[in-house]
Amino acid sequence: MKNLLTLKYxxxxxxxxxxxxxYFIFFIVLLFAASLLTAFFKxxxxxxxxxxxxxxxxxxxxxxxxxxxxxxxxxxxxIPFLSSRFWFVIWAISMAIWLFFIIKELxxxxxxxxxxxxxxxxxxxxxx
Length: 128
Known about the structure:
single chain; mainly alpha; 73% helix
């Protein structure tokens, strides 16, 4: 635990093998499964107001699965600079920022429902 708080641990150019490799592989499998699941739902909800949210969520899972596989490969092969631990921190920060914008999109859905309901109410009285 002491090691996690030192700069040498995070910025070591050749840090050695990853200690939690099994958990990381499990995380990659979860990301991949979520990517497949969102791809299915994206196709199923193609013409609804959830389409944009599901597209963003699918992009998030798919991209982060690829990044995780690359990070695992670099740490497994012990490539000096690319297996540094700070890449995991940068990746985690970027995932948090990306999830913030996805949640922001999710919070817009009730407003979109209300807007669509108002438009339908308005169109009801317009002759075609």
